[in-house]
């Protein structure tokens, strides 16, 4: 049976969409249970808006959520495409998966260290447990 060529872009975008949506839904559930729906995307969206400038995007909660959502999905699309290319390349060179595993572990530990470093700030309200579960859902 002939092997079909892979559409890395399509597969990567689907992968990114699934990961981004899993994390977005998780934090929506966590924020809603805490009594503050959309707290996480508003908080993180303020950072996105501050980088782009308030004059460019405005300073409303809707703008923060929209700005962060676009950034969140774009980042996951890029990561999804990269991971799709790496996994398909690993079919020819299996050792690549070992490197991918090491990179995943290092990045995950990095997220936990950042969460611990910011635990005394407003980011501390997003505990490492929530970040762990979000990473688990996305992977």
Counting structural domains, the number is 1
> How many β strands by DSSP?
0
Q: Major beta sheet, specifics?
A: none
- Ranges where pLDDT stays below 50 over 5 or more residues in a row are none
Structural class: mainly alpha
Question: Which band does the percent of strand residues land in?
Answer: under 5%
Order of helices and strands: HHHHHH
Mean pLDDT: 82
Percent of residues in helices comes to: over 70%
Question: How far apart are the first and last residues' alpha carbons, in Å?
Answer: 31 Å
Total DSSP helices? 6
Please tell me what the overall shape is: globular
Radius of gyration: 17 Å
Describe this structure in words.
By secondary structure, the protein is mostly helical. It has one domain. It has six helices and no strands. Helix 1 packs across helix 4 (61-90), helix 1 (8-33) runs antiparallel to helix 6 and helix 2 packs across helix 4 (61-90). The longest helix has 30 residues, at 61-90. The model has no long low-confidence stretch (mean pLDDT 82).
């Amino acid at each position: 049976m002939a092997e079909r060529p892979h559409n890395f872009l399509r597969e990567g975008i689907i992968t990114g969409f699934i990961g981004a949506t899993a994390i977005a839904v998780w934090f929506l559930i966590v924020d809603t249970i805490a009594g503050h729906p959309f707290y996480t995307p508003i908080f993180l969206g303020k950072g996105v808006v501050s980088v782009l400038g308030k004059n460019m995007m405005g300073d409303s909660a809707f703008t923060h959520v929209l700005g962060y959502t676009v950034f969140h999905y774009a980042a996951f699309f890029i990561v999804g495409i990269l991971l799709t290319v790496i996994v398909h390349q690993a079919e020819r060179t299996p050792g690549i998966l070992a490197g991918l595993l090491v990179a995943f572990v290092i990045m995950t530990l990095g997220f936990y260290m950042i969460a611990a470093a910011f635990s005394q700030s407003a980011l501390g309200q997003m505990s490492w447990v929530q970040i762990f579960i979000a990473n688990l859902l996305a992977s």
